Structure formats: structure tokens, C-alpha cells
Amino acid sequence: MYKIYFLGSLLLLSLQALAQCPTGDQSFYNQTDVNDFLADYPDCEELPGRVLIEGSGITNLNGFKNLTYIDGVLRIAETGLGDLTGLDWVFRRS
Fold this sequence. Notes:
The protein has 94 residues and is an alpha/beta fold. 34% of the residues lie in helices and 19% in strands. It has one domain (20-93). It is built from 3 helices and 5 strands, in the order αβαββββα. It has a 3-stranded parallel β-sheet with strand order 1-3-5. The protein is globular, with a radius of gyration of 16 Å.
């Protein structure tokens, strides 16, 4: 019986390791958060939840350059952004 639980646990951990994107809503409050997204999820193209980008220290969105779709609300507020480079796909989709 313990072998079944052990094998089941290994299977679940393996599936989680293959996940390409985080699940749920995502919040980014500084430039490190934005940069880490690309480093942590280099194969992520579609986010399943809402995204909040808020913080005066955020100066670019290049950490999102692999994204092609957000299945939720994208909110950008109170940042130091001069443009939306890194979210270019938003404009290509419309």
C-alpha cells in the first residue's frame, strides 16, 4: 500500500515539474519580480489568471516577452514605465 502512495506522489511531483506557467493570479511589485518571471518560467506563453503589475521601481516589462496571452485582467498601475515593450503581443492580438 505504501508503494502505491509513494509512486503516486512521485507522479504528481513529476507533473508539477513539467508545468510551464504558474497557476492563479500573479502580482509583480518590483523589477526583480518581472525579471524573475522570465527566469523562472522561460517556456510560459499563456497565463491562466489575472495579472497585476504595480510599483514605481518597475521600468520595463521585458520579463514578459515570452507571453502571448493572459486569460484574465491585466492591470498596470503606478509604475515607472515609459512604454509597454515586453507586452508587444497585446497590440499584435487586437
